[in-house]
Design goal:
257 residues, twelve-stranded mixed beta sheet, alpha+beta, single chain
Length: 257
Amino acid sequence: MSLTFYKYQGTGNDFIIIDNRTKKFPKNNINAITKLCNRHFGIGADGLILIENHDTTDFRMLYFNADGSETMCGNGGRCAVAFAKKLNIIETKTTFTAFDGEHYAEINNGIVSLHMIDVNEIKITNEYIFANTGTQHHVQLVDDLTNFPVFEKGKNIRNNIYGVQGSNVNFVEQLNANTFRVRTYEKGVENETLACGTGVTAVAIAMHATKKTTNTLINLPVEGGLLAVSFDEKNGNYTNIFLKGPAVLVFKGEIEL
Protein backbone atom coordinates (compact mmCIF):
# COMPACT_ATOMS: atom_id res chain seq x y z
CA MET A 1 0.00 0.00 0.00
CA SER A 2 1.36 3.40 -1.00
CA LEU A 3 0.95 5.90 1.81
CA THR A 4 1.13 9.70 1.48
CA PHE A 5 2.43 11.39 4.63
CA TYR A 6 3.54 14.79 5.88
CA LYS A 7 6.35 15.48 8.31
CA TYR A 8 5.79 18.34 10.77
CA GLN A 9 7.78 19.64 13.71
CA GLY A 10 6.95 21.87 16.65
CA THR A 11 10.13 23.15 18.32
CA GLY A 12 11.90 19.97 17.22
CA ASN A 13 9.19 17.58 18.42
CA ASP A 14 8.61 15.81 15.09
CA PHE A 15 5.59 13.94 13.78
CA ILE A 16 4.36 11.92 10.82
CA ILE A 17 0.88 13.22 9.96
CA ILE A 18 -1.56 11.37 7.74
CA ASP A 19 -4.92 12.46 6.34
CA ASN A 20 -7.00 9.46 7.39
CA ARG A 21 -10.46 10.80 6.60
CA THR A 22 -10.92 7.83 4.25
CA LYS A 23 -9.80 5.51 7.10
CA LYS A 24 -7.24 3.84 4.86
CA PHE A 25 -4.47 3.71 7.47
CA PRO A 26 -4.41 0.52 9.62
CA LYS A 27 -4.39 2.34 12.98
CA ASN A 28 -4.71 -0.88 14.99
CA ASN A 29 -1.45 -2.13 13.49
CA ILE A 30 1.12 -1.14 16.12
CA ASN A 31 3.92 -2.67 14.06
CA ALA A 32 3.12 -0.32 11.17
CA ILE A 33 3.21 2.70 13.48
CA THR A 34 6.50 1.73 15.12
CA LYS A 35 8.05 0.95 11.74
CA LEU A 36 7.12 4.36 10.31
CA CYS A 37 8.42 6.17 13.41
CA ASN A 38 11.71 4.25 13.42
CA ARG A 39 14.55 6.66 12.63
CA HIS A 40 16.71 3.99 10.99
CA PHE A 41 14.23 1.82 9.10
CA GLY A 42 11.26 4.15 8.60
CA ILE A 43 10.48 7.82 8.18
CA GLY A 44 11.51 8.67 11.73
CA ALA A 45 9.47 10.65 14.25
CA ASP A 46 8.59 11.08 17.91
CA GLY A 47 5.02 10.11 17.06
CA LEU A 48 2.39 9.54 14.40
CA ILE A 49 -0.82 11.58 13.98
CA LEU A 50 -3.97 10.66 12.10
CA ILE A 51 -6.53 13.30 11.11
CA GLU A 52 -10.05 11.90 10.82
CA ASN A 53 -13.59 13.24 10.45
CA HIS A 54 -15.62 13.86 13.59
CA ASP A 55 -19.36 14.36 14.07
CA THR A 56 -19.33 17.38 16.40
CA THR A 57 -15.92 19.06 15.97
CA ASP A 58 -13.83 20.08 12.95
CA PHE A 59 -11.71 16.93 13.09
CA ARG A 60 -10.41 14.16 15.28
CA MET A 61 -6.71 13.83 16.10
CA LEU A 62 -5.37 10.39 17.00
CA TYR A 63 -1.85 10.55 18.40
CA PHE A 64 0.45 7.55 18.77
CA ASN A 65 3.85 7.59 20.44
CA ALA A 66 6.74 5.99 18.56
CA ASP A 67 6.03 2.72 20.41
CA GLY A 68 2.41 2.68 19.21
CA SER A 69 0.81 3.73 22.51
CA GLU A 70 -2.02 6.27 22.22
CA THR A 71 -2.03 9.49 24.26
CA MET A 72 -2.39 13.28 24.03
CA CYS A 73 0.48 15.39 22.71
CA GLY A 74 0.53 19.19 22.96
CA ASN A 75 3.02 19.86 20.20
CA GLY A 76 1.36 17.15 18.14
CA GLY A 77 -1.95 18.92 18.63
CA ARG A 78 -0.46 22.19 17.43
CA CYS A 79 0.99 20.49 14.34
CA ALA A 80 -2.36 18.79 13.69
CA VAL A 81 -4.00 22.22 13.65
CA ALA A 82 -1.45 23.48 11.11
CA PHE A 83 -2.07 20.39 8.96
CA ALA A 84 -5.86 20.82 9.18
CA LYS A 85 -5.40 24.36 7.90
CA LYS A 86 -3.28 23.07 5.02
CA LEU A 87 -6.08 20.62 4.14
CA ASN A 88 -8.60 23.52 4.25
CA ILE A 89 -10.53 21.77 7.01
CA ILE A 90 -10.22 24.95 9.09
CA GLU A 91 -9.25 28.59 8.62
CA THR A 92 -7.71 30.27 11.68
CA LYS A 93 -9.82 28.88 14.54
CA THR A 94 -10.87 25.34 15.34
CA THR A 95 -12.27 22.92 17.86
CA PHE A 96 -11.08 19.33 17.54
CA THR A 97 -11.27 16.10 19.50
CA ALA A 98 -8.22 14.30 20.92
CA PHE A 99 -7.39 11.53 23.37
CA ASP A 100 -8.16 13.73 26.39
CA GLY A 101 -11.27 15.45 25.01
CA GLU A 102 -12.05 18.60 23.03
CA HIS A 103 -9.50 21.34 22.35
CA TYR A 104 -9.84 24.85 20.95
CA ALA A 105 -6.98 26.36 18.95
CA GLU A 106 -6.01 29.34 16.82
CA ILE A 107 -3.33 29.57 14.13
CA ASN A 108 -1.77 32.77 12.83
CA ASN A 109 1.38 32.99 10.68
CA GLY A 110 2.47 29.48 11.63
CA ILE A 111 2.09 30.07 15.38
CA VAL A 112 -0.50 27.83 17.03
CA SER A 113 -2.10 28.55 20.38
CA LEU A 114 -3.73 25.42 21.78
CA HIS A 115 -6.19 25.30 24.67
CA MET A 116 -5.15 22.53 27.06
CA ILE A 117 -7.28 20.66 29.62
CA ASP A 118 -7.85 22.15 33.07
CA VAL A 119 -5.51 20.99 35.84
CA ASN A 120 -7.06 20.70 39.30
CA GLU A 121 -4.89 18.03 40.92
CA ILE A 122 -1.20 18.67 41.56
CA LYS A 123 0.98 16.46 43.74
CA ILE A 124 3.82 18.38 45.40
CA THR A 125 6.65 16.60 47.23
CA ASN A 126 10.06 17.77 48.46
CA GLU A 127 11.73 16.29 45.37
CA TYR A 128 9.23 16.74 42.54
CA ILE A 129 5.78 17.82 41.36
CA PHE A 130 3.35 15.59 39.47
CA ALA A 131 0.46 16.70 37.25
CA ASN A 132 -1.59 15.33 34.37
CA THR A 133 -1.84 17.83 31.50
CA GLY A 134 -3.27 15.36 29.00
CA THR A 135 -0.69 12.76 29.97
CA GLN A 136 1.34 12.12 33.12
CA HIS A 137 4.22 14.45 34.00
CA HIS A 138 6.93 14.39 36.66
CA VAL A 139 8.58 17.82 37.14
CA GLN A 140 11.89 18.23 38.94
CA LEU A 141 14.14 21.27 39.44
CA VAL A 142 17.86 20.69 38.84
CA ASP A 143 21.07 22.69 38.66
CA ASP A 144 23.16 22.96 35.48
CA LEU A 145 20.54 21.54 33.12
CA THR A 146 23.00 21.67 30.21
CA ASN A 147 25.13 18.92 31.71
CA PHE A 148 22.36 17.02 33.49
CA PRO A 149 22.06 13.30 32.49
CA VAL A 150 18.47 13.55 31.24
CA PHE A 151 18.33 10.15 29.57
CA GLU A 152 19.74 8.15 32.48
CA LYS A 153 17.84 9.96 35.24
CA GLY A 154 14.65 10.23 33.21
CA LYS A 155 14.60 6.54 32.33
CA ASN A 156 15.19 5.59 35.96
CA ILE A 157 12.37 7.80 37.28
CA ARG A 158 9.98 6.80 34.50
CA ASN A 159 10.40 3.09 35.25
CA ASN A 160 11.18 2.88 38.96
CA ILE A 161 8.71 5.44 40.31
CA TYR A 162 5.87 5.11 37.81
CA GLY A 163 6.14 1.51 36.67
CA VAL A 164 4.19 0.09 33.75
CA GLN A 165 1.94 3.11 33.24
CA GLY A 166 4.97 5.40 33.27
CA SER A 167 5.30 9.15 33.23
CA ASN A 168 7.10 11.73 31.17
CA VAL A 169 9.93 13.26 33.19
CA ASN A 170 10.76 16.97 32.97
CA PHE A 171 13.96 18.48 34.35
CA VAL A 172 13.80 22.23 34.90
CA GLU A 173 16.20 25.12 35.50
CA GLN A 174 14.87 28.55 36.40
CA LEU A 175 16.45 31.34 34.32
CA ASN A 176 14.50 34.34 35.61
CA ALA A 177 11.16 35.28 37.18
CA ASN A 178 9.06 33.95 34.30
CA THR A 179 11.45 31.79 32.27
CA PHE A 180 12.19 28.11 32.88
CA ARG A 181 14.37 25.97 30.67
CA VAL A 182 13.09 22.41 30.21
CA ARG A 183 14.46 19.08 29.03
CA THR A 184 12.12 16.08 28.84
CA TYR A 185 12.41 12.30 28.80
CA GLU A 186 9.24 11.01 27.11
CA LYS A 187 7.61 7.68 27.78
CA GLY A 188 6.53 5.98 24.57
CA VAL A 189 9.56 7.46 22.84
CA GLU A 190 11.77 6.22 25.69
CA ASN A 191 14.31 8.93 25.07
CA GLU A 192 14.84 12.65 25.45
CA THR A 193 12.93 14.68 22.86
CA LEU A 194 13.69 18.22 21.69
CA ALA A 195 10.40 19.47 23.13
CA CYS A 196 7.24 18.30 24.88
CA GLY A 197 4.10 20.44 24.84
CA THR A 198 2.21 18.73 27.65
CA GLY A 199 5.54 18.72 29.50
CA VAL A 200 6.15 22.46 29.40
CA THR A 201 2.50 22.95 30.34
CA ALA A 202 3.08 20.82 33.44
CA VAL A 203 6.28 22.73 34.21
CA ALA A 204 4.58 26.14 33.97
CA ILE A 205 1.81 25.04 36.34
CA ALA A 206 4.22 23.29 38.72
CA MET A 207 6.46 26.35 39.00
CA HIS A 208 3.46 28.56 39.74
CA ALA A 209 1.97 26.07 42.22
CA THR A 210 5.27 25.90 44.15
CA LYS A 211 5.60 29.71 44.08
CA LYS A 212 8.76 29.74 41.98
CA THR A 213 6.92 32.37 39.93
CA THR A 214 3.85 34.55 40.31
CA ASN A 215 3.56 35.10 36.56
CA THR A 216 0.71 33.51 34.60
CA LEU A 217 2.55 33.79 31.28
CA ILE A 218 5.62 31.56 31.34
CA ASN A 219 8.40 31.35 28.75
CA LEU A 220 9.82 27.86 28.32
CA PRO A 221 13.00 27.39 26.27
CA VAL A 222 13.38 23.77 25.14
CA GLU A 223 16.12 22.07 23.16
CA GLY A 224 14.25 22.75 19.89
CA GLY A 225 13.18 26.36 20.42
CA LEU A 226 10.80 28.41 22.56
CA LEU A 227 7.32 27.64 23.82
CA ALA A 228 5.03 29.68 26.06
CA VAL A 229 2.22 28.73 28.42
CA SER A 230 -0.44 31.04 29.86
CA PHE A 231 -3.19 30.24 32.34
CA ASP A 232 -5.63 31.47 34.96
CA GLU A 233 -5.41 30.23 38.54
CA LYS A 234 -7.92 30.35 41.38
CA ASN A 235 -7.67 28.38 44.63
CA GLY A 236 -5.13 26.01 43.12
CA ASN A 237 -7.25 25.26 40.06
CA TYR A 238 -5.68 26.02 36.68
CA THR A 239 -7.97 26.92 33.79
CA ASN A 240 -7.81 28.73 30.44
CA ILE A 241 -4.42 27.07 29.82
CA PHE A 242 -2.87 27.80 26.41
CA LEU A 243 0.26 26.29 24.87
CA LYS A 244 1.76 28.52 22.19
CA GLY A 245 4.53 27.97 19.65
CA PRO A 246 5.43 27.28 16.01
CA ALA A 247 4.22 24.36 13.90
CA VAL A 248 6.24 23.80 10.73
CA LEU A 249 5.80 21.57 7.67
CA VAL A 250 9.14 19.86 6.97
CA PHE A 251 8.30 17.77 3.90
CA LYS A 252 5.71 15.62 2.13
CA GLY A 253 6.43 12.12 0.92
CA GLU A 254 5.21 8.67 -0.02
CA ILE A 255 6.18 5.34 1.47
CA GLU A 256 5.19 1.74 0.84
CA LEU A 257 3.55 0.20 3.89
